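Risk register update: the risk of archive-format incompatibility is retired. Evidence:
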Amino acid sequence: MLSMTKTAYVGVYETWADWEIGHLLVELRTGRFTGEQWNIVTVAESAEPVTTMGGLRVVPDMVLADVEPENGDLLVLAGSALWDEAQGEAFTKVAQRFLEAGKPVAAICGATAGLARAGLLDDRKHTSAVKEYLLATGYQGGDNYVDERAVIDGDLITAGPDSPVQFARATLERLGLASDEKLDAYEAVFHRADPSAYPALVG
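Archived output:
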C-alpha cells in the first residue's frame, strides 16, 4: 500500500522562504483535511544542509540530479534570495521536465521569477508578487499575467509571497484532493479566521 503514496518533491536552497509553502506541505503530509497523505521529499543541488530564511537547517533527502518526474507527483518551489540573483537554473530545468511530463509544478514568490527567466511562463497564465517583478526578468509572458492571489493553468500553479493559503488551496485543487466546498472552508479558516467554516473543513 505504501508504494501507492504520492510524492511531492520540494526544492530546498539557501534562504528558501519556509513560510510560503508551510500550509501546503502540512496538508499534503498529514492529509488531515483531504484524507490522503503524501511523501514530502526535499531535494537540493548537493547533499549539504541548507538554511531556510527562518533559520531552520534542512538536510536534503535527495540531490536534484536523481529526481525523475515519473517518480514524483508534484514539484514545489518557494521563494529565496537566489531567484533574485538570477540563480536556480538547475531547479527550473527540473521544473521544465515536470511540465513536459504532465506533472504539476507549484511555484510561489521568487520561484515565479525563476520560471519566468526560463521561459516557462511565456505561454501559461500565471501570477506573482506584481507584474513588474516578472517583467524585470525580461520574460515574454506579460500578456499572460493574472492579478490574482493564485493561478492554475494546466500543470502550473503560481502565487505571490502574500498568498501562502491561496497557494495551498490552488495546489490542492489542481491535485484533486478536496472539493470546492472544502477548499472554500480551508481558505475561510486559515486566511479569514472564520470559525463558522470549520465544520465544512473537517466534515
